[in-house]
Amino acid sequence: MKLIIGKILVLSLLLFTVESLVAQENIVDESLALVQNDSLLLDSNLVQNQDELTDFLVPISISEDEIPCTNIYETWNNDHVRINPASISTIDTILVLVNDSSRFVFPFEGKMISNFGQRGRRTHSGLDIKLQKGDTVVSAFDGVVRMAKTYSGYGKIVVVRHYNGLETVYSHFSEILVAVNQKVKAGEPLGLGGRTGRATTEHLHFETRYLGVAFHPMHILDFDNFDLKTDTLILNRKTFRISNRPIYQNIVDIESDDEHSETEHEIAPSASSSTPEIHIVKKGDSLYAISRRYGKSVKQLCELNSINENSILNIGQRIKLN
């Protein structure tokens, strides 16, 4: 009798053990299923986020005649920032930045938090301007949007080609507001501030490029007044040197050998509060600066002095104001 009871107990114990093992296996299977489901949810979220990153405005149709500066650029590339960069030794030109028919608007009136130049072994090819998420960034000049997408460390980026061949780059947007091939005016919104791409804080990364080569934006930007330093810019090999100090050259200072000097606008003061008859050109003067100083348009100055907006001013030259 005792033997039978013992066998029953052993069999009961074995049965309990088997049931426990099966239950544990089911628990493991269920846990694994939950992990797999969570992973699928994560994958689904990742795909959804990727779709959001590429959810930009549909490119606008454009004719070749509407593309700026096809005479100096080989392609109209919508995928890359740098496109067949030119040799800087071959660049020697004068850019007219503004005139009576085109204007400049500061992209975002904020504090510069990082300069152009070397960052260890890397080159920081633009300026960083502090802003808050959602702040509106605008186009500096009239032009056409060449690129609007998510792009590597730039995050959400917009590249605008302007009608003088200059290209400006705006990146780390939280949202892009323009489409590829869209015509934009100076001051027209391009995107909203953010920190997409390689960014540790919300800011605007701003670049100036010509024929694919970046140069120091401080050649033209005046952060003290949120304006242009000049209405014309000399572009040559000195302009493209990698330095965190701009090598600013005005039309009247093109022969200067000081590669690290920054010319300030020096405008002769008037003898009285009324507009004088003549302005004597000083180092750093430009038609645009003179026109702003005396409340005249560039067109008026050109007509009064029988010159054009691209004319080179010489130190000591007398400019009629009335």
Summarize the structure.
The protein is of the alpha+beta class and 322 residues long. The protein has 3 domains: 1-55; 64-253, Glucose Permease (Domain IIA) (Distorted Sandwich), CATH 2.70.70.10; 278-320, LysM domain (Membrane-bound Lytic Murein Transglycosylase D, Chain A, Roll), CATH 3.10.350. 21% of the residues lie in helices and 24% in strands.
User: Would you identify the CATH H-level superfamily of the largest domain?
Assistant: Glucose Permease (Domain IIA)
Beta-strand content bin? 15-25%
Radius of gyration: 31 Å
Order of helices and strands: HEEEEEEEEEEEEEEEEEEHHE
CATH top level of the largest domain?
Mainly Beta
Low-confidence stretches: 21-53, 247-274
SSE-based structural type: alpha+beta
Multimeric state of these chains? single chain
How would a textbook summarize the main sheet?
Answer: 8 strands, antiparallel
| CATH fold type of the largest domain | Glucose Permease (Domain IIA)
**How many E strands?**
19
* Tally of helical runs: 3
Report the mean per-residue pLDDT as an integer.
Answer: 77
The percentage helix is 10-25%
Number of domains: 3
Mind explaining what this structure looks like?
With 322 residues, this protein is an alpha+beta fold. 21% of the residues lie in helices and 24% in strands. The protein has three domains: 1-55; 64-253, Glucose Permease (Domain IIA) (Distorted Sandwich); 278-320, Membrane-bound Lytic Murein Transglycosylase D, Chain A. It is built from three helices and 19 strands. The model is unreliable at 21-53 and 247-274 (pLDDT under 50).
